[in-house]
């Protein structure tokens, strides 16, 4: 089934070139189907790249999805033209009265700053607070996961001895968990970060389950038992070239970046990187949409406000 987006979004052509069915908003109006409403809080600098990556993964499901993209109005965007934001993005003020079945909070290249030093931090806190009563399930990615845990529970992030950069094998701790149905015993996932959430503090949280980890990366996936909050510390949404682009960008800038591990064949950065996480990424996002969002959210999405403040168990919810 298609992902529904605003007509003429640049990502549409890239997705169609990959034989992914994307439906623009005009065509979707003719269908009498209740789509899932998703909000993507896109904090990445290359917004058009991230849009394509996420939409590619969200399309691998029999569900129709209506996607809104949100930018932080308190941050000056430098890598995306204002015309693109005006055409395809909404501000928080424009969505605060709406309800969403799911929300994705992306990573951001600000992890070496203290959370309070991030220029849009107060706006981020407002979005997190709003989501308690207006979003059914939220998927936090990389810095978005660290920031979400700090905003919600005060979990600090800690500096790593060096940048964690590369493709790493991660465990599947509970193969019967809905988010990991269909997975093998382990999977590969890109990681690209300087910090990690404090595992000691995380272990003290109640009603949470560690679903994936590894010796190299630490925690990889953490979720609340009712699936309303999912924290992915890696970047399953990355495409084949993302880590290569980041590495060569920093290398060309004379920053002497850490070499991505388990990524370039024979550690030769002139060769095409290996793609070893595509199937895991597709399955993970499909499972999140199906089990964390679709099977729990009410058909009348406006009913969310009656239940979400209580943080109820979606298995007991009456649609």
TrEMBL record:
What catalytic activity is recorded? L-homoserine + acetyl-CoA = O-acetyl-L-homoserine + CoA
Top enzyme class, one word, equals transferase
GO CC terms in record: cytoplasm
Q: Which residues bind substrate?
A: 163, 192, 249
**Compartments reported by the entry:** Cytoplasm
Q: Does the keyword Transit peptide apply?
A: no
Q: In which pathway does it act?
A: Amino-acid biosynthesis; L-methionine biosynthesis via de novo pathway; O-acetyl-L-homoserine from L-homoserine: step 1/1
The site annotation (Important for acyl-CoA specificity) covers: 111
Q: Where is the active site?
A: 142, 235, 237
Q: Name one GO biological process term.
A: L-methionine biosynthetic process from homoserine via O-succinyl-L-homoserine and cystathionine
One GO term in the molecular function aspect is:
homoserine O-acetyltransferase activity
UniProt keyword terms in alphabetical order = Acyltransferase, Amino-acid biosynthesis, Cytoplasm, Methionine biosynthesis, Transferase
Q: Which CDD domains match?
A: GATase1_HTS
EC number, as in UniProt? 2.3.1.31
Q: What is its main location?
A: cytoplasm
Q: Which residues are listed under the site Important for substrate specificity?
A: 192
Query: What is the purpose of this protein?
Result: Transfers an acetyl group from acetyl-CoA to L-homoserine, forming acetyl-L-homoserine.
Q: Which family does it belong to?
A: Belongs to the MetA family.
Q: Which NCBIfam families match?
A: metA
Name the record gives this protein: Homoserine O-acetyltransferase
Record organism: Lactococcus allomyrinae
User: What gene name is given for the protein in this entry?
Assistant: metAA
């Amino acid at each position: 089934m298609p992902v529904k987006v605003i007509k003429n979004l640049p990502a549409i052509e890239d997705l169609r070139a990959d034989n992914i069915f994307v439906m623009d908003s005009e065509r979707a109006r003719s269908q009498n189907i209740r789509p899932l409403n998703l909000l993507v809080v896109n904090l990445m600098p290359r917004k058009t790249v991230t849009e394509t990556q996420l939409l590619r993964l969200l399309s691998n499901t029999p569900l129709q999805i209506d996607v809104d993209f949100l930018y932080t109005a308190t941050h000056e965007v430098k890598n995306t033209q204002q015309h693109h934001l005006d055409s395809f993005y909404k501000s928080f003020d424009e969505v605060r009265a709406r309800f969403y079945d799911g929300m994705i909070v992306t990573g951001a290249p600000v992890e070496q700053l203290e959370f309070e030093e991030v220029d849009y931090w107060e706006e981020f806190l407002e979005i997190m607070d709003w989501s308690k009563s207006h979003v059914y399930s939220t998927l936090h990615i990389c810095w978005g996961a660290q920031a979400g845990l700090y905003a919600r529970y005060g979990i600090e992030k800690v500096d790593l001895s060096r940048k964690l950069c590369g493709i790493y094998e991660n465990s599947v701790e509970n193969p019967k968990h809905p988010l990991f149905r269909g997975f093998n015993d382990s999977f590969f996932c890109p990681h690209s970060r300087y910090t990690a959430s404090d595992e000691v503090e995380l272990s003290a949280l109640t009603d949470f389950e560690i679903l994936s980890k590894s010796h190299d990366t630490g925690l990889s996936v953490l979720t609340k038992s009712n699936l309303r909050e999912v924290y992915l510390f890696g970047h399953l949404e990355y495409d084949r070239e993302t880590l290569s682009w980041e590495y060569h960008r920093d290398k060309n800038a004379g920053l002497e970046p850490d070499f991505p591990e388990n990524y370039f064949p024979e550690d030769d950065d002139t060769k095409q990187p290996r793609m070893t996480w595509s199937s895991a990424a597709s399955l993970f996002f499909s499972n999140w949409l199906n089990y964390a969002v679709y099977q729990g959210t009410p058909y009348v999405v406006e009913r969310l406000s009656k239940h979400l403040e209580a943080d109820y168990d979606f298995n007991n919810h009456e649609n």
